[in-house]
Amino acid sequence: MAYHFHWPYSQIMSLEHFERKTWIAEIAKINRRLNEAMKSESADLHW
Question: pTM (2 decimals)?
Answer without folding.
Answer: 0.69
